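Q: What structure does this chain adopt?
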Amino acid sequence: MKKILFLISVFFYAAAVFSQDKNANFSVALETSSYTYSEPSLGVKLSGPKYGISAEYLARNAQKGGLFAAAQLGFMTGNVDYNGYVENIATRVVTPHSVGGIKDYYFEGRFLLGFAAADSGSASSFWPYLGIGYRRLFNGMGVDAYGYDRTSTYIYLPAGVRARFKMPRGWELSPSAEYNIFLGGTQESALPGETIIKNQDEGYGLRASIRVSKNLGRAAFFLEPFYRYWNISQSDWVYSYYLSSVAGTPMYASEPANNTTEFGLKIGASF
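A:
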């Protein structure tokens, strides 16, 4: 935690210094995506469309080697459908089960520090960066007698690169690729009468996008298809008083290995 607070402090200091040169911009975008969460070992899947908004403030100090800092916020929400099964804990009988209209949303905040490997007048430039990210997802599975609400949190280090290619007539092409180093997270399961918290220690994430923008002077407008992926290993095992009381024997719970895939599109403007 101390390392995370230190990185955030460094970011804010860098952003304040860089913005003094007024070499900064702010962008905002609407997003839509196709979202799928799955637990392959159990045949469980949650899927559906998502909609949301994102914003970025980027400041660059061109006087000191092209260093830049960026703050990013994003929120996505939408109803998803569950396809899987329910298990009677006492009898161990498994029954297929599906339910729709599940409330599902996530918030993400990220801080990046990097270096622009070309001056602002070049036709192309490359922007490698590192950062710190936080993701919190709520999944309202408690819509019927078989489900329960779940909350996931991830802390991770984004490591990636952006590229910028200036085209004729104010057009610009900006692909990006990123690997997310998973530092850790938790899975909170709100069972009747108790909330159990399971630690997740291993996993990784991937991101890729390609932005096409048109500069119109004081503002630029852009389209940006994107891909986001998470692969999270099984969590630790936690004793559950509720499950133990139902089964009549000590019961432990864990979060199965899972992956999340999201394909989407941003439409926005930068100033």
